[in-house]
Design goal:
625 residues; alpha/beta; 62% helix
Length: 625
């Protein structure tokens, strides 16, 4: 039961709206019952021929008793109606006119009760609107914030499309789960309880049959709800896979077209889409089954009541007359709509619980890279960065370490180059310094202090990165260069662009630095995107530079100009350069040669050539000496 309403935890901060929603739902239930209960005196009025009895009722006011509050209300209403009937006199014509007057009064009261019932229904929905939309907003904010703080290792294991599905579709399911939870907890059960109470007052014997058979309906509803939850979970997982394919298609459309893979990708998409179709059909069918199933069971119970109650009226048993039984049956029939609503709501809640479990996997995912509780202050690098006996594997406990027993000291102002075959651990080693990953063993020191003792933001503010793949945003050139630096001026941005040899081509655009570069910089060439990335790193003016194949996407002329700018930028800075093109790192202070996660050679270019080892072979393969 606790799990059923666990989605309610998301309305924290919206309890004022929740209480107003609950209050108006309670009033809605009260007005619903009262508007139906008024039918009873109406039926009595139409069928009453005993004028002496009516006259006697008009002369005896009911006595209030908290133990007989229902009887007091009914008797009080009958007392007022009877007085109204005899208000014009006691002769036959006056009594008939009084009955018409009472009839008008009853109709007016029923209309007013119905009006207030619907007004309360609207007000309940009015106050749930901020909850529904506020929870969606807050959940998406939390999910996006958590996604920014999750370690890179998390994204190595999860599918991007599945994450998108959780942020979009699953959040919407939570919205409906909350809305229906508030209704299923308060409005519908209260409505049923009030009608059952009135039925008990009218005929306890008949109501006993209702209590015997209603659990049957509840059993089938719960059974169906559990099945719906399982089916919903499977369909959401498939939808996440579908989103992944869409993301890969849009991101790799150029390669798909170049390798004529349209048919393969389309077949792959259609296969998953067909699977999702089948699962969605099951979900909808089970959702739609709940309402007619519950209604059929409840109507069956009502027909049993109709038979038993009709039999009691015919034989004069149980003190039931025809009018009273009609009122009883009307009250009993009013149980059907709330039970149907509860059944549908239960289905939505089960789907919401399934979505909640998927969302909680993100919100409760451990932050492997954590900030220290009492971080030490960090300043500009003064002495050196040092890796001491560092080992790392992407999967904990994995024997296949990406880095093994790395010992490396990078002194301030020095340029260290990392070379080696693909998969040798170059990029992973560089990623350890800004703590994209933490060491499995060993430690990384910044001026003698373990980097785990610094605040993550403070540490990363000391580091500028230009990656092999140009990561740009669908925004203006200015905002891409000034990314993370809200106070950067246009002059600062232009200066950085000039150093990166980007100013000239930026000026050629109609809107200059205000030009939107499209999704992932799609409006720029590969070389232009890379120069924007370099300008971004230049503007940050960090004390430590990590250049991961920073010039790989440039043509020969641009590479020469940008390489010269990078040389100037790296003066008096600590730089870590990852390179496959060895011509770009010949001037490095030290070159580290990696193989299978281990340092196999180290020295400057001349020393390594004279060593005639692995580095010499790499140079010969590139025809560079």
């Amino acid at each position: 039961m606790f799990k059923l309403f666990s989605v309610l935890k998301y309305i924290k901060g919206y309890w004022n709206y929740a209480f107003l929603n609950i209050a108006f739902n309670i009033l809605y239930s009260v007005f619903s019952v009262v508007s139906i209960a008024l039918v009873f005196p109406f039926l009595k009025l139409l069928n009453s021929s005993n004028e002496e009895l009516l006259k006697m009722k008009s002369q005896i006011a009911p006595q209030f008793s908290i133990l007989k509050i229902t009887s007091y209300v009914f008797d009080g209403f009958n007392y007022y109606i009877s007085r109204l009937i005899f208000s014009l006199g006691s002769d036959t014509e006056a009594i008939l006119s009084g009955k018409v007057k009472a009839l008008v009064f009853i109709c007016l009261i029923v209309f007013i009760m119905t009006f207030f019932k619907n007004l309360c229904r609207y007000m309940a929905m009015f106050f749930i609107a901020p909850i529904r939309n506020g929870v969606v907003r807050d959940l998406r904010n939390k999910l996006h914030k958590k996604s920014l703080h999750l370690p890179l290792s998390y994204y190595n294991e999860e599918k991007k499309g599945d994450l998108l599905s959780r942020i979009t579709n699953d959040v919407v399911e939570i919205e409906f789960g909350i809305m229906t939870s508030l209704e299923i907890i308060f409005r519908e059960p209260l409505t049923i309880l009030m009608f059952l109470s009135s039925m008990i007052v009218i005929s306890p014997k008949l109501t006993l049959y209702v209590f015997v058979f209603l659990p049957i309906a509840a059993f089938f509803i719960v059974l169906l709800g559990k099945s719906l939850k399982r089916a919903s979970q499977r369909s959401k997982e498939t939808l996440g896979h579908l989103f992944t394919i869409i993301d890969e298609t849009l991101g790799g459309i150029k390669i798909i077209k170049a390798f004529t893979g349209e048919k393969f990708i389309q077949q792959r998409f259609e296969t998953i889409n067909q699977k999702f179709y089948g699962q969605s059909v099951k979900v909808y069918r089970r959702t739609d089954l709940s309402s007619p199933l519950s209604e059929s069971i409840v109507v069956g119970i009502l027909m049993l009541i109709l038979f038993l109650g009709g039999k009691m009226v015919i034989y004069g048993e149980g003190g039931l007359d025809a009018e009273t039984f009609i009122l009883y049956f009307i009250a009993a029939s009013q149980i059907i709509p709330p039970i149907k609503q509860m059944t549908v709501a239960y289905g939505f809640i089960q789907k919401g619980v399934a979505s909640e479990e998927r969302i909680d996997k993100i919100l409760n995912a451990p932050l492997v890279i954590e900030n220290p509780t009492d971080p030490k202050p960090i300043g500009t690098l003064k002495y050196a960065i040092e890796l001491r006996n560092v080992s790392f594997a992407y999967k904990k406990g994995d024997s296949g370490y990406v880095l093994r027993n790395i010992d490396l000291k990078i002194e301030k102002g020095k340029t260290i180059a990392l070379v080696g075959q693909s998969g040798s651990g170059k990029t992973t080693m560089a990623d350890m310094i800004p703590r994209f990953y933490d060491t499995d063993s060993g430690e990384i020191l910044f001026d003698g202090t373990n980097i785990k003792e610094f605040n993550l933001l403070d540490l990363r503010q000391q580091i500028g990165i230009v990656s092999q793949e140009s990561i740009l945003f669908n925004d203006t050139i200015f905002n891409n260069i000034a990314f993370g630096l809200p106070n950067a001026s246009i002059e600062d941005v232009k200066t950085a662009a000039k150093i990166a040899n980007a100013h000239e081509f930026i000026q050629s655009f109609e809107n200059g630095y205000d030009t939107n570069i499209g999704d992932r910089g799609s409006k720029l060439s590969g070389g232009q995107k890379q120069r924007i990335s370099i300008a971004r790193a230049i503007l940050k003016n960090p004390s430590i530079l990590i250049l991961d194949e920073a010039t790989s996407a440039l043509d020969t002329e641009s590479e020469k100009l940008v390489q010269e700018a990078l040389y100037n930028l790296m003066k008096n800075r600590t730089s870590i350069v990852i390179a496959h093109r060895l011509s770009t790192i010949s001037n490095a202070d030290e070159i580290i040669v990696l193989s299978k996660g281990e340092i196999i050679e180290r020295g400057n270019h001349t020393q390594l050539i004279e060593l005639n080892g692995n580095y010499k072979k790499l140079c010969d393969m590139q025809s560079f000496k």
